[in-house]
Amino acid sequence: MKKTSGKNLQTEVDACYLYQKLAEHEKDITVARVFSQMSEIEKNHAEAFLRKQKGDLPAVMPLPSFRAKTLNKIGKIFGYDYILGVLMDTEKSISHAIIQARSKNNLPITGTETNHVKILRSLLQNESRVTGSQVARFESRHRSVGGNALRAAVLGGNDGLVSNFSLVMGIAGATEGGNSVLLAGVAGLLAGALSMALGEWISVKSSQELNENQMQLEMEELEVNPEGEEKELALIYMAKGIPENQAHQMAAGIMSDKTQAHEILVKEELGINPEELKGSAMEAAVYSFILFAIGALIPVFPFFFGTGTTAIIISVAGSAAGLFLIGSAITLFTGKSIWFSGFRQVVFGLMAAAVTFGIGKIIGVSLAG
């Protein structure tokens, strides 16, 4: 009970801190006010936890955690839309866990378990100066942060490290850490990085072409049937919980500017953020290549300077350290314990390498015989 209560209190404190940071760095006054209100809500939740304490919570309000402060620093570098995505994911996870716990204990689901995404939307939609473009911008920002660059960096480095670590250990097992390990490791690094880069280029390029085609069709529909598109936009806002009259007013205001109307319809109806289409497929391929290569370089690096058992041991130690750091970085998305995630990553990575090392050892003995 103590561990769970303390974790819940820290989650509320961290959310209060991060929502306040979002408010401080939000240029749109209306949206900033929403984030400030969310911060106050989280603060009230944390204070409620303290009032109900029975010896299982700290006597004073804890400070924001290392994770929350790290996320704030990342927000300064990558943009605070990323922090919003992390907060939304956290709220969804908490909501899902509460619902599961109630179901397991045969307790009724009251509807209060729903996450704060709905609260955010409700606050935004009930602001007196809210506009359709502000609602649409919030929705598109929330949708777009899931595929952010930081997540891609962590996963790309992980792919490179795990795959090349397994390859290097397989060759090391077959050759007892001979000179061929370096050749195989470098070849694996280049082949994997090039494959990742090509895959990323194709993925981005094809996605852009598909979205551009859908956007063109949407423009044609807007020109041919503007009344129908206005009704559709009003229905979208009504589905979000906006009153019918206000939804129609917002839709009519947006449709007065065809360019703005097309942008909003693309975001609301198609779920496409035009800003994301401006990204370069070649740039994405280069980043993918670099991130994979950095991870893949770790296990092969010791073999640039030596061979044999010593190089193998250094490779394993360096790779284990890299795996732990990657596992720790993943906690920025999951909120799990750094030690748990880090050591879990190390265990799985070492298991994969041990399997390939064993197979290499068997093959090496067989060839030698």
Explain what you see:
The chain is an all-alpha fold. It folds into 2 domains: about 1-105 and about 115-125; about 150-369, no CATH class. It is built from 14 helices and no strands. Helix 1 runs parallel beside helix 3 and helix 7 (about 150-175) runs parallel beside helix 14.
In sequence order, what are the helices and strands, one letter per element? Answer: HHHHHHHHHHHHHH
| Percent range of helical residues | over 70%
User: How many strand units?
Assistant: 0
* Average of per-residue pLDDT values: 75
Strand content: under 5%
Main sheet overview: none
Structural class of the helices, strands and pairings? mainly alpha
Tell me the overall shape.
flat
Indicate the radius of gyration in whole angstroms: 26 Å
Overall number of structural domains: 2
* Low-confidence regions: 111-115, 142-148
Write the layout of secondary structure elements.
Elements: H1 2-25, H2 29-51, H3 66-78, H4 81-104, H5 116-126, H6 132-144, H7 149-175, H8 180-224, H9 226-239, H10 244-255, H11 258-269, H12 281-300, H13 308-334, H14 338-368
Helix pairs in contact: 1-2, 1-3, 1-4, 2-5, 4-6, 6-11, 7-8, 7-12, 7-13, 7-14, 8-9, 8-11, 8-12, 9-10, 12-13, 13-14
